[in-house]
Amino acid sequence: MSSSGPALHDAVRPLEWLLGKWESVKAEGFYPTIKPFDYKESLVFSHIGQPMLNFSFSSHDPNNKPMHNESGFLRVNVGTNKVAFLSAQNIGVVEIEEGEVNGTELCLDSTSVSSVSFGKEPKTTKIARTFKLIDENTLEQNVAMATSRTPELLPHLKVQYKKKVE
User: Fold this and answer.
1) CA–CA dist 73, 29 (Å, integer)
2) In Å, how far are 56, 112, 121, 151 from 6, measured between CA atoms?
3) Is 131 exposed, middle or buried (0-12, 13-18, 19+ CB in 10 A)?
């Protein structure tokens, strides 16, 4: 945030490396039940002075057709390195992931995944996600997923982002 915005809450200082706008330079999707695909993704982490970060993801296919949107919060258990990732997605999925931040790596595993009753099959049943800062301007995210048809967590998304300089 700009210097005129609220001060960063001390509890989220360990996540400060995520703050900013990120654009994918390489984004790949794959899973045993689908054809591999490339896509583009924008990611924003911001704060309003509370012990959490706000985030939003926006994905498009290579022709800029909208695909997936997601927004939520990275909530910190104050006084610990424990973090909760709370997310609502335009495809009708709501999830809670919990994990830890260690240095410039955040590792999360779902504790709850819910879908709207009329969402398409297969339903997502479990998610594991990592964010890792490669250097001050490069962020990587890896996502593994299990579904109602593939109960084992398997790699699904790999994204490398560059920080947008404003």
Assistant:
1) 23
2) 19, 31, 43, 43
3) buried
